[in-house]
């Protein structure tokens, strides 16, 4: 008998060691995903591993977890992993396995969106450009060459995840994977080749036997057992629902903002609006999975951004480009998650009923079998705050808001009432480069036709000529002065994106398109000389296309050139792929040392100049950014690593650049003598560049007496988990929290009464408690966090009885 027990013990140990015993069965039904037999309400956030650095991953994931997320979602970036057919790269920022393991280490789940077409404002939508050269290929269609490579890469990734035991079925964190991406947007363009491709993709994916469900987003005909999911801003209103009663409602992209292109202002989506639509999706559509796209956007390093997309990606997300917590977005969503988690039981097992509470007011009630009850009270009226009666109790509902009642009685959260703190980004200039001794320059040679070796008799298409190795393609031509007149007209048309024209080495004009209209034309009066004239046209791309059907048919570069009315399009042009500085890797230590650099300003300014300087790392841990506000357009490298394209001269309708600060991750830096190299395409002023550090040390709270108290008081449940208990009794509070390792050093403003303003600017109102500042200082100065109950008794007595009051506090952390 004893031997039997011993054997059993060893057997169990063996199972455990191989991860079999802890494998989790992931299935689903009409209500939700089911993990290990349990229905789940899951909040998820997109964080794309190559848009930050491995050094940033642990803290990003930890902040996501603290913000109440259960799942981290990422795309897989095919062209990053297989830059050449069969040559794979999973190093550094490309280390997908390390990223997934980091998610696992923090106790979160992962959703792997393999695609492998991903769009994602990523160069070529993630497809490797070498696909273009495969004969007969049609991307994303029932096309054998494409399917062959798509299957090969998908299998490569799935096998990699399997061999590292990363699927939940193997004890790992991956609970979902995605095949294709928003295909319904383009399916009609593929006519009869579309539907069989969808069926093939689903079958191929399911055949890979991951043990976890597959999803297709925005694909209402996703074949069983693949789940169709919603992407968008307002799935609570727009989602037609799963295509089978046995599939749950999942929202895979809840856009927290929107990507930004050059010439555009950032898209601001308020925390209140996001929270409203998430709560509506859960209440009205029975949603059980919501993913924020993006939770952290990060940086499009190098040339990875797609057409006209700026280098900073979704900076407005709950974690900003630098990974700093953006308030109140992060905190308001954290409270929303906590409030919804308090409703988990009735939400996941209860029955849904609804009732009207007025013209534009509705209640959604979830009732469980053992008496659990949760309610969502919705005011769809955008203009009016209302009072509603629900189960004989009166509730105030601000305009366009949802109150969450985890017991059908007590509202713990309202989507329009922010009780979490605000914070703003502070920028400190750490280094300037304002003396000419600090800079050296190197002028790129403007090639004329006898310096180029590639020839063709009609215009070459840009992407298929550069093969994506450079943004730049030179078109060069030589012609005799047509009729001896000095004045002439140059006329150029291009499919995009940016054109610079030189005649006999002199700049004559430039033009660019935009995200809305990529094509451009240039018409310039030019002076010709007698004898041969040399025309050099530089066509630059600002990212490869990433969206729409038939990417393989897209064209960029020049389409027509006329001089003096005569068409020179179908003549023998010479080409140079890329710039000489790029070819010599002038931006690396090694490449730079082999270049003849000149003193800054040693000759007249020229378009296309390389600049070089060195700098020491700023002290501390705050994120670092380069302010390139004095430059025009180009690319910047720090110690050989590209921090991305910049384009400061393309102004928005408000007259400002779309982006002036460019993220320099600390991990790119060494303590001393970092090499900074810039390629300026236009005329820039490097002496105006500064190196800044970024912090969010200014915090602010604005809470009224009628606010709800914070959703949770967190109590330690066991060693690892904190649980949220409904906060009772203590009333509304202003809660301030400083960034790690800092404390409140100054109260810049404090008023309990009727202060005017918000966290940008503050003025005292007619009602003001003279004890406001002293009370707040006593509670907060020198502390890393503090909370003040918003009620008269906190401040001694009531400064204006009968008048609704609030507390506005603005503080500085140090
Ligand atoms: C997973 O769960 C489903 C449904 O509950 C069940 O039918 C199946 O046998 C389970 N599979 C494993 C491997 O436990
Ligand atoms: C309430 O439920 C009924 C019956 O299920 C449905 O027809 C109606 O559209 C729902 N109303 C709202 C506002 O969702
Ligand atoms: C509401 O009040 C009415 C009459 O006062 C009573 O009959 C009813 O049971 C109450 N309903 C609830 C849900 O308390
Ligand atoms: C796009 O720009 C080109 C060149 O400036 C112009 O000819 C064309 O009409 C524009 N197209 C649209 C749709 O605005
Ligand atoms: C070129 O010069 C002519 C005559 O001086 C003038 O009318 C025309 O507007 C000019 N065109 C451009 C594009 O500058
Ligand atoms: C906070 O200070 C500790 C101890 O000095 C240090 O180890 C840690 O890295 C600091 N954290 C941050 C976020 O700066
Ligand atoms: C996604 O979240 C935002 C808030 O971040 C919200 O405004 C939006 O409506 C949500 N999208 C959907 C489809 O619910």
TrEMBL record:
Residues spanning the signal sequence? 1-23
User: Which keywords are on file for this protein?
Assistant: Apoplast, Glycoprotein, Glycosidase, Hydrolase, Secreted, Signal
Tell where it localizes: Secreted, Extracellular space, Apoplast
User: Which Pfam family, just one, is annotated for this protein?
Assistant: BetaGal_gal-bd
Q: Which GO terms describe its biological process?
A: carbohydrate metabolic process
Tell me the enzyme class.
hydrolase
Question: Which Enzyme Commission number(s) are on file for it?
Answer: 3.2.1.23
Protein's recorded name = Beta-galactosidase
Q: What species is given as this protein's source?
A: Quercus lobata
């Amino acid at each position: 008998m004893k031997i039997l027990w011993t054997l059993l013990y060893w057997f169990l140990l063996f199972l455990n060691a191989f991860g079999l015993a802890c494998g989790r069965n992931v299935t689903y039904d009409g209500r939700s995903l089911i993990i290990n037999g349990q229905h789940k309400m899951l909040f998820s956030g997109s964080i794309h591993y190559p848009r930050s650095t491995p050094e940033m991953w642990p803290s990003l994931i930890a902040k996501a977890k603290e913000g109440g997320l259960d799942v981290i979602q990422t795309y897989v970036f095919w062209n990053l992993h297989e830059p050449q057919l069969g040559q794979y790269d999973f190093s550094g920022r490309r280390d997908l396995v390390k990223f997934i393991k980091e998610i696992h280490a923090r106790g979160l789940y992962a959703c792997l969106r393999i695609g492998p077409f991903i769009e994602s404002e990523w160069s070529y939508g993630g497809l490797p450009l070498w696909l273009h050269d495969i004969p007969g290929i049609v991307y994303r269609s029932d096309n054998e060459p494409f399917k062959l490579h798509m299957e090969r890469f998908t299998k490569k990734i799935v096998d990699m995840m399997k061999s590292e035991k990363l699927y939940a079925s193997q004890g790992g964190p991956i609970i979902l994977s995605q095949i294709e991406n928003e295909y319904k947007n383009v399916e009609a363009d593929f006519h009869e080749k579309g539907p069989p491709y969808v069926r093939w993709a689903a079958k191929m994916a399911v055949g890979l036997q991951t043990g976890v469900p597959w999803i297709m987003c925005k694909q209402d005909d996703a074949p069983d057992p693949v789940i169709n999911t919603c992407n968008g801003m307002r799935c609570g209103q727009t989602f037609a629902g799963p295509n089978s009663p046995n599939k749950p409602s999942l929202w895979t992209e809840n856009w927290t903002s929107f990507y930004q292109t050059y010439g555009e202002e950032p898209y601001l989506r308020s925390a209140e609006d996001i929270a409203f639509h998430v709560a509506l999706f859960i209440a009205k559509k029975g949603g059980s999975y919501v993913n924020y796209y993006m939770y952290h956007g990060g940086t499009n390093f190098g040339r990875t951004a797609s057409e006209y997309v700026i280098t900073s990606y979704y900076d407005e997300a709950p974690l900003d480009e630098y990974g700093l917590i953006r308030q109140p977005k992060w905190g308001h969503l954290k409270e929303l998650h906590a409030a919804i988690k308090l409703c988990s039981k009735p939400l996941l097992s209860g029955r849904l009923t609804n009732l009207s509470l007025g013209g534009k007011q509705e209640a959604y009630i979830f009732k469980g079998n053992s008496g659990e009850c949760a309610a969502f009270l919705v005011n769809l009226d955008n203009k009016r705050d209302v009072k509603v009666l629900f189960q004989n109790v009166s509730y105030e509902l601000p305009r366009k808001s949802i109150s969450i009642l985890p017991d059908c009685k007590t509202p713990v959260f309202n989507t329009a009432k922010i009780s979490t703190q605000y914070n703003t980004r502070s920028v400190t200039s750490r280094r300037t480069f304002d003396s000419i001794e600090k800079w050296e320059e190197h002028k790129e040679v403007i090639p004329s036709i006898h310096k180029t070796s590639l020839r063709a008799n009609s215009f070459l298409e840009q992407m298929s000529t550069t093969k994506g190795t450079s943004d730049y393609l030179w078109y060069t031509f030589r012609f005799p002065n047509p009729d001896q007149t000095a004045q002439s007209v140059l006329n150029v048309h291009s499919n995009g994106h940016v054109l610079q024209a030189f005649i006999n080495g002199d700049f004559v004009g430039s033009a660019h398109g935009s995200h809305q209209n990529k094509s451009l034309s240039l018409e310039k009066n030019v002076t010709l000389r007698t004898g041969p004239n040399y025309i050099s046209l530089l066509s630059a791309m600002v990212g490869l296309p990433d969206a729409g059907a038939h990417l393989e048919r897209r064209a960029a570069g020049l389409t027509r050139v006329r001089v003096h009315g005569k068409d020179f399009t179908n003549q023998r042009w010479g080409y140079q792929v890329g710039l000489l500085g790029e070819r010599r890797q002038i931006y690396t230590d090694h490449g730079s040392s082999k270049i003849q650099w000149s003193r800054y300003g040693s000759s007249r300014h020229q378009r296309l100049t390389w600049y070089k300087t060195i700098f020491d790392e700023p002290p501390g841990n705050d994120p670092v950014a380069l302010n390139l506000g004095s430059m025009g357009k180009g690319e910047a490298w720090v110690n050989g690593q590209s921090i991305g394209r910049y384009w400061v001269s393309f102004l928005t309708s408000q007259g400002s650049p779309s982006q002036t600060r460019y993220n320099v991750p600390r991990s790119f830096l060494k303590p001393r003598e970092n090499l900074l190299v810039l390629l300026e395409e236009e005329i820039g002023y490097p002496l105006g560049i500064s190196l800044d550090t970024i912090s969010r040390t200014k915090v602010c709270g604005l809470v009224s007496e009628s606010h709800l108290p914070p959703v949770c008081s967190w109590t330690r449940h066991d060693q690892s988990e904190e649980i949220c208990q409904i906060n009772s009794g203590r009333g509304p509070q202003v809660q301030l929290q400083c960034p790690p390792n800092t404390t409140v050093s100054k109260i810049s403003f404090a008023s309990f009464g009727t202060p005017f303003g918000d966290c940008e600017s503050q003025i005292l109102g007619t009602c003001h408690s003279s004890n406001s500042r002293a009370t707040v200082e006593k509670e907060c100065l020198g502390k890393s966090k503090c909370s003040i109950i918003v009620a008269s008794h906190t401040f001694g007595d009531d400064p204006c009885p009968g008048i609704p009051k609030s507390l506005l506090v603005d503080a500085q952390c140090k």
